[in-house]
Amino acid sequence: MEIHFSKQIYNLAKKLWPINRSITGDGVRETLSIIQKEVPELKIFEIPSGTKVFDWTIPKEWRVRDAYIVTPSGEKICQFKKNNLHLIGYSSSINLTLSLSQLQDHLYSLPDQPSAIPYITSYYEERWGFCIAHEERKNLQEGDYKVYIDSELFDGSLTYGEILIKGQSSKEIFISTYICHPSMANNELSGPCVTTFLAKKIKDFKKLKYSYRLIFIPETIGSITYLSKNIEYLKQNVVAGFNVNCVGDDRDYSYLPSRKGDTLSDQIAKHVLKHISPTFKSYKWADRGSDERQYCAPNVDLPIASIMRTKYGMYDEYHTSLDDLINVVTAKGLEGGFNALWKAIEALERNSYPKVKILCEPQLGKRDLYPALLTEHTNSKVMQMLNLITWSDGAHSLIDIAELCETPIWELYPIVKKLEDHKLIELYNEPS
Amino acid sequence: MEIHFSKQIYNLAKKLWPINRSITGDGVRETLSIIQKEVPELKIFEIPSGTKVFDWTIPKEWRVRDAYIVTPSGEKICQFKKNNLHLIGYSSSINLTLSLSQLQDHLYSLPDQPSAIPYITSYYEERWGFCIAHEERKNLQEGDYKVYIDSELFDGSLTYGEILIKGQSSKEIFISTYICHPSMANNELSGPCVTTFLAKKIKDFKKLKYSYRLIFIPETIGSITYLSKNIEYLKQNVVAGFNVNCVGDDRDYSYLPSRKGDTLSDQIAKHVLKHISPTFKSYKWADRGSDERQYCAPNVDLPIASIMRTKYGMYDEYHTSLDDLINVVTAKGLEGGFNALWKAIEALERNSYPKVKILCEPQLGKRDLYPALLTEHTNSKVMQMLNLITWSDGAHSLIDIAELCETPIWELYPIVKKLEDHKLIELYNEPS
Amino acid sequence: MEIHFSKQIYNLAKKLWPINRSITGDGVRETLSIIQKEVPELKIFEIPSGTKVFDWTIPKEWRVRDAYIVTPSGEKICQFKKNNLHLIGYSSSINLTLSLSQLQDHLYSLPDQPSAIPYITSYYEERWGFCIAHEERKNLQEGDYKVYIDSELFDGSLTYGEILIKGQSSKEIFISTYICHPSMANNELSGPCVTTFLAKKIKDFKKLKYSYRLIFIPETIGSITYLSKNIEYLKQNVVAGFNVNCVGDDRDYSYLPSRKGDTLSDQIAKHVLKHISPTFKSYKWADRGSDERQYCAPNVDLPIASIMRTKYGMYDEYHTSLDDLINVVTAKGLEGGFNALWKAIEALERNSYPKVKILCEPQLGKRDLYPALLTEHTNSKVMQMLNLITWSDGAHSLIDIAELCETPIWELYPIVKKLEDHKLIELYNEPS
To answer: What does the angle CA A22 – CA A24 – CA A29 come to, to the nearest 5 degrees?
Structure first.
């Protein structure tokens, strides 16, 4: 019954890998159109450059045709077409010959990671520059260097995508991921790829309780833009949600809270991660760094938490060319990220306030719910049922009860079903 | 002034020991009539078989005249008249000759405790069987066995007893114990015997504040029956109470909470046990197993906690013939159980919300409450008085204050008296 | 900008040192008139002997002209004029010749601290006696001793001082210290001396938000007297405050809570001390012993906490002639006590409920608040600003925010200023 999407998610990531994404531009559009093939419900929005979005302004659109450096010996290096990380994001156009020392002011490398090309952008201050592996930079010879960047900054638009899957309720689960990073895997092809397959699986879920809104935006400016257009609606309708990023390596599981730290999303994220991986890392709001900064800003305060594999900034390959689909992100890593988020969504769907319909303990025996022979196994099953019943007082949610029973919520689903079938409990949407 | 009941409680247990109790039947009636001799206020109630009590139905009454097995060599074994544990509770009548291997299907023993006769019942499924020490079972020879059970299951009634001791208030303290176990001592002759003497001592208490309701019922079906008749009254009037069981061995002290865990009964139980025995065992609601399951069921939610010596299931002799009045239950053990419960009752009676009647510290010196010479001892006495005064703000109960002062509440009773006599504090029933 | 008062505070202590203070009398008046020279706003009040103050009565006034003992060999010892601790406080007049053994009943010394003269008083029971170093007492020879005390107990008055410094609000910060101890330094010349200079510094504070009331009273009877006259006004107007004592040695920092333990004064005291000295000692209400006993008595309940250096009773020299201005109290110790209290006052003044004025994160870059080059230092500065912004939701006070950011509140003042200048936050007096 459970479909293993891992291979498909990984293949989508491979397909999206070479595209030069940024906070605007054709790379974003190409990425969204590939995702649209997987989920045709994806709608694409364009917001013009210069639009005011809260304290910010949509920047010019960036287009690159080519970029490289020619060394004194005539070798072409830092070729954008070979690796889009070579070019600083939002670099302006240039065609110039420079001495090595003049060039050095425009080169960026990591002495501690000599083989890595760093990832650098300059969205809001016009400049140009190249990123290069430190071991290559060290061997550059004196002489004249030709630098060539054929790029354009022009009044265009910022592009984002949105999927809406309607459930029985107009109350929504909000899932956000970003599509502004060029060729890096965990941060951030894993987020949009896992989110695409979450959308597919949500569509297949029978009798969906909540409506689901999944957005694919550029980080920061994208979430601010989206919020500036939709904040009132979101504040009224969103009951829980997750910011999806860094969900592709198979090394760790991580949780980062909402600002308030006590929302339903936080409760479920911690519950799921604890039972998937008791040693998961629990970060604090002070460790934030992605779009939760906007979703949980004061007076925005959407109930958005983060479920991650290894968090941005917490692994060596972060924001370099080493964050790849070979050594960092794997099909197994993506499957783990997908699985954790899916378990959280399932918990949201199946959460309720169960209430036992009779006073005192029900007589399980007359309903064949109490085994004639109590072995250690059947005894633990009976105890699980009795524990579920004893907390089904209408005041505790199923997720509360799972915590009280120290059991994963998913082990309670079949028991809830059985007790409902025997008309021993009723499920309510609200505490009573 | 303090009467030591330990010997008397132990003697009552010895008198009740041989009676064949079950959830119904003459053994219960005989037990209650002996208790009635100690406390004539005990009223006995009979509820007919077939009566619906919430999700349950009062079962048929069980009567046994005799039961035994005759071995191939003519020896009478498993004689009910020698030890009532030999016969499975609620065994139906039988008169049959069987081979050893046919007999084995109806024998129950404990390989790990070869000298113990286990305690087994089958109230709601008709069957028959014998319990036997494993060492005896192993030596049974091939051949024909005559099994003989002269018992009866018939439309009779379930019997229980109730003592009501009226105090100044109609608010009640509810104490429940069970009288359905045959010849076993800690679980459960200790409960009814200690409860009988609690009733005697409550009757002697001067100016009783609360009314006291003490019930002697069969476990589970009895508490469900009692609740089905009295739940509305109990919910309105019961302010605290205890389920009394396993209060007779001198090995441990134990606390099991109410379902909500924060009732007055819980606060007092923990306070008393902490000061009697700092190493007492504190169980969780998940460890429940006795009538608290009914009293604290969702929407019943009476404030009932348990104060025990060694908890059911937590000692080797539990539910076997080894749970006796020689090696397990002792006069000293019963005295400890009685004492802990009595200290809890006394705390309920003496609890109040003291409020100091003057602003700032009173001048103790002019009332001779401040010793001229401060030794270490008098200094600690003065500090105890000042600590009691400083927390007598009308918002804290005496039990709260005892916790704040890290002192047993009973050390505060004489100080409260002294301060009241000097008109320095007033006692209120409610926080102000 | 920060004026170092340490030398001046120490000099004031030296000037006040020789005066014979008690709970009444000319020593108090002389002390207050010297303080008045530093802070002319000090008003002096006289409350007649015999006045009823809550449960107490203002005692007679005590005046001493001379006191000493003449030994058999004609030597004058225990001379009050050499050390006022030699005479028990409130000793009555006497002129008598006694044998050594008769004299011994009136001598007090400390065998464990043979060189120390103990500090003893008898305010409410008339007696006479001398305090003497144990090493001196041991060498007293048999023979006739002449004891001479020229003192007077008469209907006079109890004297106290009060400084009121008005701020923009009629809400008050209440600071109390006591002036009833004769020649001892930490307990208690440090309190009145530090408080005098707090008053001077408060007067210099620009745009004072709160009004400040600083009182100089005798301990216990003084605070009770003051409260009996002003309790209604204080309960309506005081928002925070401190009892100032034992603020002069350079060994420790200590905190003693208000009775309720969760007032603004408690929050600020703990915050300041934690960041000044992470190893500060945190006492409990059970450890109280000074005027907080009155200010926090039930139904008085002013929000008064204590910030101290080494607490009374917790250092060897306490209440003896060894508590001096040489080995115990130092300029550096006084400066530390002053500084801690000043930081607390500053925190009260600068505390507010900041609220960010825009939705989502502000764009710091366009305001030059985001450095072009992120070094470790600038990054931590930016993070501090972003952390302040993220908690500026109108529900958290600046002191709450400092706790959430795990940073001393004083590091936030310049950031608050910068954000206010950029109109990014607004400051409110109340949570919103």
So the answer is: 95
3-state helix, strand, coil in chain A (%, to 5): 35, 25, 45
User: A361, B286: Cβ pair inside 8 Å?
Assistant: no
CA dist B184 and B13 (Å) reads 10
Q: C295: nearest CA in chain B?
A: B360
- Whether the CA torsion A22, A27, A29, A33 is positive or negative: it is negative
Say yes or no for a CB contact (<8 Å) between B390 and C224.
Answer: no
Q: Which tokens in the block code for residue C76?
A: 């004058």
For residue B387, give the nearest of B369, B404, B410, B409 by alpha carbon: B404
pLDDT tens for chain A, 432 residues long, are 345 789 999 999 999 999 999 999 999 999 999 999 999 999 999 999 999 999 999 999 999 999 999 999 999 999 999 999 999 999 999 999 999 999 999 999 999 999 999 999 999 989 999 999 999 999 999 999 999 999 999 999 999 999 999 999 999 999 999 999 999 999 999 999 999 999 999 999 989 999 999 999 999 999 999 999 999 999 999 999 999 999 999 999 999 999 999 999 999 999 999 999 999 999 999 999 999 999 999 999 999 999 999 999 999 999 999 999 999 999 999 999 999 999 999 999 999 999 999 999 999 989 988 876 667 777 888 999 999 999 999 999 999 999 999 999 999 999 999 999 999 999 999 998
What element of type H or E holds A273? helix A264-276
Q: What are the C-alpha distances in Å from A103 to residues A112, A201, C112, C282?
A: 21, 50, 80, 60
Contacts of A299 in chain C (CB under 8 A): 356, 359, 393
Query: In this structure, which amino acid lies at residue A104?
Result: Q
Using a CB–CB cutoff of 8 Å, tell me whether C54 touches chain B: yes
Cα→Cα distances A162→A205, A243, A354, Å: 19, 14, 34
Nearest to B294 among A360, A392, A394 (CB): A360
Q: Taking a contact as any Cβ pair under 8 Å apart, which residues of chain C between 198 and 227 contact chain B?
A: 220, 223-224, 227
Q: Are B7 and B330 in contact (CB under 8 A)?
A: no
Q: Please, are residues B155 and B35 in contact by the beta-carbon 8 Å criterion?
A: no
Specify whether the CB–CB gap between B163 and B43 falls below 8 A: yes
Question: Which residue in C has a C-alpha nearest to residue A228's C-alpha?
Answer: C359
Q: Does B366 touch chain C (CB under 8 A)?
A: yes
CA distance C244 to C307: 7
Select from A52, A53, A55, A229 the residue whose CB has the most chain C CBs within 10 Å, as the one to mutate to test that interface: A55
- C366 close to A (CB below 8 A): yes
Contact across the interface for B299 and A387, Cβ inside 8 Å: no
Q: Which two tokens stand for residue B380?
A: 């600690």
DSSP A164-231: EE--SSS-EEEEEEE----S-STTTTHHHHHHHHHHHHHHHSTT--SEEEEEEE-TTHHHHHHHHHHH
Report the DSSP pairing between strands A43-48 and A157-165: antiparallel
Of the partner residues A55, A286, A288, the one whose CB lies closest to the CB of residue C360: A55
* Structural element, H or E, at residue A131: strand A130-131
The neighbour count for residue C365, using CB atoms within 10 Å, is 14
B373 close to C (CB below 8 A): no
Q: Give, in order, the Cα–Cα distances in Å from A100 to each of A68, A76, A81, A143, C53.
A: 15, 15, 22, 6, 88
Tokens of A100: 């090595």
pTM of structure: 0.94
From chain C, the residues in CB contact with A298 under 8 A are 355-356, 389-394
Using CB atoms, pick whichever of C55, C228, C298 lies closest to residue B390: C298
Complex-level ipTM: 0.93
Burial class (CB in 10 A: 0-12, 13-18, 19+), A3: exposed
A412 touches chain B (CB under 8 A): no
